[in-house]
Amino acid sequence: MPPALQNPFLLWIVLSVALAVLCYFGVRKELRLRATLYGAFILACAVAVWPPYEQDGHPGKIHLGLDLKGGIHLVLQVMTDDALNATIDDGVSTARAQATAKGISFAGARRVDASSFVVEGVEPARVKDVRDILKDFFRSPEWDVREQGDGKFLVKMTDAFVNQVRDRTVKEAIRTLERRVNQLGVAEPVIAQHGAKNDQILVQLPGVTDVEQAKRVISTTAALSLRMVEDNAPTREALLEKTQGKVPDNMDVFQGQGREPGQPEFYLVRKEAVITGRDLKSARAGVGQNNEPDVNFGLNPAGADKFKRETGRSVGRRMAIVLDNFVISAPTIQSQIGAEGVITGRFSAQEADELAKNLRAGALPATLKYLQELTVGASLGRDSIRQGVIAAGMGMAFLAIFMLLYYRLSGLNAIVALTANILILLGAMAYFGATLTLPGIAGVILTVGVGVDTNVLVFERIREELRNGKTVKAAINNGFDRVWMTIIDTHATALIAAVFLFAFGTGPVKGFAVTLVWGLVANVFASYFVSHFIFEWVLGKRQAASLSI
Amino acid sequence: MQILHNPSYDFLGKTKVLLVVSTTLILAGIAYIASHGIKYGVEFSGGTQLIARFQSRPEVDKVRAAVDKVVAGATIQTYDDPSKNQMLIRLPHTGAADGELSSAAQAVLQALRDNYSGNSVVESSTEIVGPVVGAELRSKAIKITIFGLICQLIYIAFRFGGAVWGTAATIAVFHDVLITLGLIVLCHYEITLNVIAALLTLVGYSQNDTIVIFDRVRENLKQRRKEPLAKVINDSINQTLSRTIISSGTTFLTVLALYIFGGEVLRGFAFTMVIGIIVGTYSTIFIASPIVVWWDSYRKRQRPPTARAAL
């Protein structure tokens, strides 16, 4: 194939033009427009679907589901209460710290449940001050501060804020998982919010069969370290030029975010970490001297010791913050740092917040719990696809033979319509990136069944009209006109069922619903309009005396 | 070629006998389900399911002996064609209790490795479902089916201008689902997600079949308002009979191909469809149509002059 025609769109244009020319010479005037439009549409589907499966290294256009391809399907529950607890714990320490700073003492501040805490035992004289502090630091619409008398305050997260934190937690977990899954090098992974309450994550890794490795990568916790940067460059090759492409024994190469968004930067960093996530005591986003967002962090004594030594002799050099083997930031050391430090840089308040969170939690904002695990061996998947295709082939071959025997030449019309039907169905699936599952193949077979039903409805009606003494032309037109309503009603009810199946939305069933929906739509076009057109075209202008039906 | 020449069978005359048959079948099915319980697939019941492919043909006894040493309560059976050397191992539980969902499945694989040497597991597929997911899914499946049916009922009632048409079609669907469900349980198939999909497809198919005949009734009624409804409906069934036989027949044979050649994974799905197509076709003629006739005569007895107009 010439290179220009490898572009599917160009290929389609060329084929359509050729078709239009053919139609101009081979088809009667009143049918030309329809012939070209129908033909071009079916061609578009054929082009979209080619090649359907993997061939000579080119990926196939039909996405195969896990059950056919083999792979892993996981459903994880994000324990969003973890994040709420952390928010409340933060609130408790803020309240304590602020009160202490103003010289107020109270009996206690403690968490009540996942979304509220109380401050109690405030001396009557200082109630007003405490009220001011709480009102100042825990503002609406996120917080709700209620005075309960006797120097007791209930501070509660509003429902909206609770939902917001839960949602953010799930989204953060998804981002973290995406970063980790990228290390696995899986083609087309799916990582999506899932479940009725949207607090689950669906992970699908087609083609991956080593579940243990995949799960290890997904559930590594707090793989955070701060390491000295030796060198950095925009590409791995440039970075390793000096060492003839080899990574020195005491070094690692990690990718990170470059200066421009979306541009990678590669870092050569020491294998030995200055400190790890365990040495980090706290981290929070703040605002620096020039009103620029920054991140303040605190270290435990052991960590502070190591950090002080290293930063003391490395002022002016860069230190990489490595999370899950990815450099999230590489600030320059400005001065010796001990137990407390500040990371400044050109980041937005939101980025600072995120960096603080990454430092704090190591990686995941909440723990993940496995709810469902499904693995399919690759050859077991191949078996299924073979059997499904054989069954589909057998069913269709049988149908074709039957239609030809029973309806003779009109049966050929039905076969053409069926072929168009399947092409459109597969073309739509390829174009919209829908996934073909094993139940999906069953859906294709069912589509064929419904498609034949449409043809049979029309053909039987035409026979009836012929028996009643109508001419061939009138019989065909009446036949198609009369069954139109029936077809609309039957397809609409089936479509309602398919939409509900789709909403049911779990892997294989969804795949089935998708094929069913497209199948129904394709069916109306192919078995009704295309089939009608073929009758008109073949029978010609003359009044045919008989019809092979 | 033609199967039938102007058929004129008296379908509605036989409804009383067939009603007894249908009711008996449904009641027998319900009684059987009540006494034996429904076997749910792992996605609904929760638990661990493992399909292992062995190097050479495995012996059930030896696999059982190997597995029983480490985990209790395993169901073990040959999976799919015996020449494929596959075994299905089901455990009612997951490893969730000690935090790791897949630990039960791993224990089984390890047990096979340790205690069944000489025939190693070449490849395996596992499905592990925590108890929460299973229960959630069950209630969702029921909800979706009921909502789907209600929407279809409304659509049909709207299209045919009377609630009785939609209701009749829906009762026929319930009839189909109950009988099919009874047979699924009787033949020891599990209720899996695929079977649910097949049941919902059967709902669509049964409705489809009913609508084709109702549609013909609607068309005939336009010209034959004076004739008794029972006769119009009976004629409509006869007029569409060859279509019914051919369409149901061809679809039946395609799903039969699926049942025979589609492999183990699709067997429950295909079985449901095979039964469903037979029952769905039957119920259109012998359940949905008589209901409309009965309703019509009931209304006539209540308020003779306006009965037909209100239908």
Summarize the structure in words.
The complex is a heterodimer of chains A (549) and B (311). With 549 residues, chain A is α+β, with helices and mostly antiparallel strands. Helices cover 53% and strands 21% of the residues of chain A. The longest helix of chain A has 33 residues. Chain A starts with 7 loop residues before the first helix and ends in a 10-residue tail after the last helix. Chain B is an alpha+beta fold and 311 residues long. Chain B is 67% helix and 9% strand.
List the helices and strands and how they pair.
The complex is a heterodimer of chains A (549) and B (311).
Chain A: H1 8-26, H2 29-49, E1 63-64, H3 66-69, E2 71-78, H4 80-101, E3 106-113, E4 116-122, H5 127-137, E5 143-147, E6 153-157, H6 159-182, E7 190-194, E8 200-206, H7 211-219, E9 224-233, H8 236-239, E10 251-257, E11 264-270, E12 275-276, E13 280-287, E14 293-299, H9 301-313, E15 319-323, E16 326-329, E17 340-344, H10 349-361, E18 368-376, H11 378-407, H12 409-431, E19 435-436, H13 438-467, H14 472-504, H15 507-539
Parallel strand pairs in A: 1-19, 10-16
Antiparallel strand pairs in A: 2-8, 2-18, 3-4, 4-6, 5-6, 7-8, 9-11, 9-12, 9-15, 10-11, 13-14, 14-17, 15-16
Chain B: H1 15-36, H2 42-45, E1 47-54, H3 60-68, E2 75-78, E3 86-91, H4 103-115, E4 121-129, H5 131-160, H6 163-186, H7 193-223, H8 229-239, H9 241-261, H10 264-302, H11 307-310
Antiparallel strand pairs in B: 1-3, 1-4, 2-3
Largest sheet geometry of chain B = 4 strands, antiparallel
Morphology call of chain B: elongated
Number of continuous helical runs of chain A: 15
Q: Please name the fourth-level CATH homologous superfamily of the largest domain in chain B.
A: Multidrug efflux transporter AcrB transmembrane domain
